[in-house]
């Protein structure tokens, strides 16, 4: 199997293209600082509350969902926070930085494949992030469009249907993502091939995502999107 076997690459955005852990940590300083919470502990708590909130309110717009996560974290850490602070955290997505290699790798891959986003976010928040990525995606599939959050199988059925409308079957898709929990496990269940961008290589724990269950697999592994793009380039000689 080669990367060039896939004329469509679908991407998770946050954690894969956008450095959401740095963005989340920066946006949580109003709570984590007063509570004395370390970065990895804050990210683990975020993962727990975000995934729970997504299960409880699957149709809630992501910016509003994040505001509720902020409220839950404030309660857990015993920090007083205002409605304005909750809303500011929800609106912070567009401020989260892109990984330094994302824009260049996407620009290269765009010349060789159709690029599709499958993201647990709302359309307005993604539009701000997309400006940081500098590429026009062939399709954008958000949780707001679908009405549920990954790892719900419905999100991957939606992706497959959108790609079919572009003229490609599910066997032509390579799903590229960091989260084993949100992306690779449901991609496995949907029968999709996948590439793991292991952005946390060498760092213990699973950061801002819940730990994946046993048996999750992937077809390629890279520590950055630049590594994937370089491997793709080498396949072409």
Task: Characterize the structure shown.
It is globular, with a radius of gyration of 17 Å. α3 crosses α4, α4 (62-77) packs across α5 (83-90) and α6 runs parallel beside α11 (225-235). The chain has helices spanning 20-27, 29-35, 39-56, 62-77, 83-90, 102-110, 123-133, 143-146, 153-165, 180-190, 225-235; strands at residues 8-11, 114-119, 139-142, 173-177, 193-197, 220-222. The chain has 237 residues and is of the alpha/beta class. The model has no long low-confidence stretch (mean pLDDT 98). α10 (180-190) links the parallel β4 (173-177) and β5. The protein folds into two domains: 3-19 and 96-235, Rossmann fold, CATH 3.40.50.1000; 20-93, DNA polymerase, domain 1, CATH 1.10.150.750. The chain has a six-stranded parallel sheet, sandwiched between helices. It starts with 7 loop residues before the first strand and ends with a helix.
Could you give the topology of this structure?
Elements (H helix, E strand, L loop, with lengths): L7 E4 L8 H8 L1 H7 L3 H18 L5 H16 L5 H8 L11 H9 L3 E6 L3 H11 L5 E4 H4 L6 H13 L7 E5 L2 H11 L2 E5 L22 E3 L2 H11 L2
Parallel strand pairs: 1-2, 1-4, 2-3, 4-5, 5-6
Helix pairs in contact: 3-4, 4-5, 6-11
Overall, the morphology is globular
Named CATH topology of the largest domain: Rossmann fold
Beta-strand percentage range: 5-15%
Q: Describe the oligomeric state of these chains in a short phrase.
A: single chain
State the strand order across the main sheet: 3-2-1-4-5-6
Report the CATH superfamily of the largest domain.
Answer: HAD superfamily/HAD-like
| Overall radius of gyration | 17 Å
Number of helices: 11
**Structural class, from helix and strand content?**
alpha/beta
Tally of extended strands?
6
As for the number of domains, it is 2
| Gross CATH architecture of the largest domain | 3-Layer(aba) Sandwich
Mean pLDDT: 98
């Amino acid at each position: 199997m080669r990367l060039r076997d896939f004329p469509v690459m679908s991407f998770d955005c946050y954690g894969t293209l956008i450095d959401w852990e740095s963005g989340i940590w920066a946006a949580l300083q109003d709570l984590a600082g007063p509570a004395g919470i370390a970065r990895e502990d804050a990210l683990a708590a975020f993962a727990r509350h975000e995934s729970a909130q997504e299960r409880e309110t699957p149709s809630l717009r992501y910016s509003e969902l994040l505001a509720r996560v902020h409220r839950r974290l404030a309660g857990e850490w015993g920090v007083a926070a205002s409605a304005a602070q909750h809303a500011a955290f929800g609106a912070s997505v567009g401020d989260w930085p892109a990984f330094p290699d994302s824009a260049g790798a996407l620009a290269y891959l765009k010349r060789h494949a159709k690029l599709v986003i499958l993201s647990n976010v709302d359309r307005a928040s993604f539009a701000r992030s997309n400006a940081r990525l500098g590429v026009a995606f062939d399709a954008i599939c958000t949780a707001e469009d679908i009405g549920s959050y990954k790892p719900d199988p419905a999100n991957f059925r939606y992706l497959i249907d959108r790609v079919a409308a572009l003229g490609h079957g599910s066997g032509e898709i390579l799903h590229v993502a960091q989260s084993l929990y949100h992306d690779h496990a449901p991609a496995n269940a949907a029968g999709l091939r996948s590439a793991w961008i292991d952005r946390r290589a060498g760092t213990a724990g699973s950061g801002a995502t819940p730990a994946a269950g046993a048996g999750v697999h992937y077809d390629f592994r890279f520590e950055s999107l630049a590594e994937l793009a370089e491997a793709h380039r080498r396949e072409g000689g």
